[in-house]
């Protein structure tokens, strides 16, 4: 298995800036409510930046274009991360983030297909996304489309049996236009995923199901670009999955250290500090790259 | 298109054979009854020939839901998902999102009890044109509660945007299929499979999605019925007519959205009113009718005929139909007792 060449520094810098903006947008929304799935939004920001600013074929003027790659968020509680990515992709206006989870908002706390432009599926109940991705992948093939369907799921979601039904169906039907991404942050509602219902070794499980599987650090932007590019360019007649190891609250050190990580409450006086810590860690990262 | 075959009933011979449970038998029609074979499968092939968006899916039960007719006629339009009902509804969802019109088949119990979350959130919320054609509604198998969908209407009536059809016979099924495909949102058909009786072609009747039809009029009794119970009610009405009892039969194959006006037009005449359904008396046609009557402030008393609020026993279908009061003879007896 060969990997594409290391991406150019300017490309990486551009994607790190995108990830930083996604994190900022996530904090802006979360502050409106004072709480939410903030840790998850921060942990998946690098992946979403690489997808929405690099990998996906999207038309911001026509989010339902037949020529788009389909991006499905199976984990509906990551909605604020998706809304942030859709702002970054210019599908949603940044001002709308202030309406997050409010009355009459198009941005409900859990993402819903019919509520928000650019949201492909309703994901609040877990274990649905991969099965729908199968049907979309079948439909794209029926139409002779070259486009891909991406499905973002979580390690906790691997506990849902329906995910493995879908994994078997995808492999059996050789859906090589399907790329799943598993956010492995090792956290779910009651605690650490690996302590409750460990699905490790995840890479080997997908491989045993007939998938082409890779795993990398979900905050390593060059590795994300290389692995996602490699999966897309693979010539194997198999569905593909990238497992990304991530840290909840990534980029805001005092949130990373919280004991209650799954659904976070942030005190009013903490938001300014959160933005500051985020800016600090972004500076450190980009200065590190510049050296 | 298969045409109905008319064969006279065979004369009973000396000793009747022991009643078999009929658990795995695909045929609903009695020996010698006028019937059409696999009406769903043939109607779907005909509809798909006219509309290239139609695709078929099954979860390991194509042969037992008559979808094998479609599979064999149009193999390139068929997706076998395997024994995975949640994945079945997921794949149907994705295909509908890409502009196709999926007909997905399995047994009713598996689509409803097992995969309801997927039906509700993926298909109904998005109002996708996914059509579920699901076999073994109510008491159509002697296999027992694991396979008998006596509760599917109760479960599904609460699903927003879902159209629910409970056909009487092969005619209803054949005429419903193109209308289900043409309807914008999701639909659920209570499928009768195998050799399915042909009944309604003897009446001035055409299936119309969302409409109920008065099949016959009568001065003494009104029966609102759906599904295969309409055939039994019609037979009961003929028997009661010989005693001078006039029975009107309002066939309501669309359970949701329900044709309230057709029902209300028949009420208020002082007739004995009954509902007849191949479903638990909880949550199905009786509740649908009672809800209309109550919400409109009408004071009609309505007597339900249906399956009990319990787990059905296994056994031969005619035995069970008698035991639970849903056979033709039981309907006749019930009406006489109530008059």
Account of the protein in words:
The complex is a heterodimer of chains A (291) and B (339). Helix content of chain A is 44%, strand content 11%. Chain A has 291 residues and is α/β, with parallel strands linked by helices. In chain A, strands 2-3-4-6-5 form a 5-stranded parallel sheet, sandwiched between helices. A two-stranded antiparallel ribbon of chain A has the order 1-7. In chain A, helix 1 packs across helix 3 (79-88). The two termini of chain A are 31 Å apart. The model of chain A has no long low-confidence stretch (mean pLDDT 94). In chain B, helix 1 runs parallel beside helix 7 (170-182), helix 3 packs parallel to helix 5 and helix 8 (229-241) crosses helix 12 (328-338). Chain B is globular. Chain B: Keywords: Thiamine pyrophosphate. Chain B: Belongs to the transketolase family.
Topology of helices and strands:
The complex is a heterodimer of chains A (291) and B (339).
Chain A: H1 9-33, E1 35-36, H2 38-55, E2 70-73, H3 79-88, H4 129-142, E3 149-154, H5 161-172, E4 178-184, H6 193-196, H7 202-208, E5 212-217, H8 221-233, E6 240-245, H9 253-256, E7 264-265, H10 270-290
Parallel strand pairs in A: 2-3, 3-4, 4-6, 5-6
Antiparallel strand pairs in A: 1-7
Chain B: E1 35-37, H1 39-50, E2 54-58, H2 68-73, E3 78-80, H3 85-97, E4 101-107, H4 108-114, H5 116-124, E5 131-135, H6 152-156, E6 163-165, H7 170-182, E7 187-191, E8 195-197, E9 213-216, E10 221-225, H8 229-241, E11 247-251, E12 254-256, H9 260-264, E13 272-280, H10 285-295, E14 302-307, H11 317-323, H12 328-338
Parallel strand pairs in B: 2-3, 2-4, 4-5, 5-7, 6-7, 10-11, 10-13, 13-14
Antiparallel strand pairs in B: 1-8, 6-12, 9-11
Helix pairs in contact in B: 1-7, 3-5, 8-12
